[in-house]
Amino acid sequence: MAREFDEKDFAILRKLAPEYSGILCPESGHEFHSILPPVSNHIAADEEDFAERVGRLSDEDWGYLTDQILSGREDLGCMPEEDIDTILVRIQEAVSEAAAEQVRRLYHLSGCGML
Length: 115
Hints:
Number of strands: 0
Low-confidence stretches: none
Mean pLDDT: 86
Radius of gyration: 13 Å
Order of helices and strands: HHHHHH
Number of helices: 6
Distance between the termini: 18 Å
Strand content: under 5%
């Protein structure tokens, strides 16, 4: 079952991908379960484009996304390592070093099949 996006989720998605208006993942045809993975994997042209897009987000947006990641509502498991590194830098700058470390651990645990 897809995550139910609220207005905050849609506002963040519009910042990241203003050219994209749907809630269906462009490649799979099903609804988004998270915000960052589809932008990373399907909407951004490359690593630099992804970095530019996530640079548009405010500290408040990063606080919200970090809470979503740590609560399990935003899943980063299918994202490439280089985009995770970009996210971790943004979280460290906008939220805290401790929060970025928690997200890093969660990403690596999920990649190892431990979660």
